[in-house]
Amino acid sequence: MPSSSASAVAPARMARVHEDDDLVRVDADLLRPGEACGPGSVWARVRIPLVEGEETSPIPRLAIVVDSTNGISGELPIADWLFVPPTMSLTILRPPVGPWIHLAAETHLSGIGTVAAQGRVSDLDGPVAFVSRPLPVAPRR
């Protein structure tokens, strides 16, 4: 599994990624070159509250970011495959501190129509959580 330690890339750099796009709810920078499949990691922060007019607390912010586990670590091209994420297991060690959350993830293929995406979550202070998502997959028609 990719390292969950704080990356050499400072999250402050990512503050510029989507700051002008009102439709984007998360600032993020994928730390994997190009459109390659395989393990990836991301520093992300939630930009728009989950509930309008209320601050999003640390655990919901964490859940919003880890919802992307299979998206940042896909082993199959998204243009050719459909993914259905029916559930997610999130083991929380502690609430994240600060707005930035680091997710390091990888996906494992089963060969029988399912994949398992797993991730380690950190903030600038260290480990925060672990996530696991089983996903049925099928070719796009």
Q: TL;DR of this structure?
A:
By secondary structure, the chain is mainly beta.
Commentary on this structure:
- The protein has 141 residues and is mostly beta strands.
- Mean pLDDT is 78; it is low at 1-10 and 12-25.
- Strands 1, 2, 3, 4, 5, 6 and 7 form a 7-stranded antiparallel sheet that branches.
- The protein starts with 25 loop residues before the first strand and ends with a strand.
- It has helices at 58-66, 69-72; strands at residues 26-30, 40-46, 81-83, 89-92, 101-109, 114-123, 126-139.
Shape: globular
**How far is the first residue's CA from the last residue's CA?**
32 Å
Q: What is the helix/strand order?
A: EEHHEEEEE
Which structural category do the helix and sheet elements fall into? mainly beta
Mean pLDDT, nearest integer? 78
Helix content: under 10%
Radius of gyration using CA atoms only: 15 Å
Secondary structure elements and their pairing?
Elements: E1 26-30, E2 40-46, H1 58-66, H2 69-72, E3 81-83, E4 89-92, E5 101-109, E6 114-123, E7 126-139
Antiparallel strand pairs: 1-2, 2-5, 3-7, 4-7, 5-6, 6-7
Which properties best describe this structure?
141 residues, 2 helices, seven-stranded antiparallel sheet, mainly beta, globular
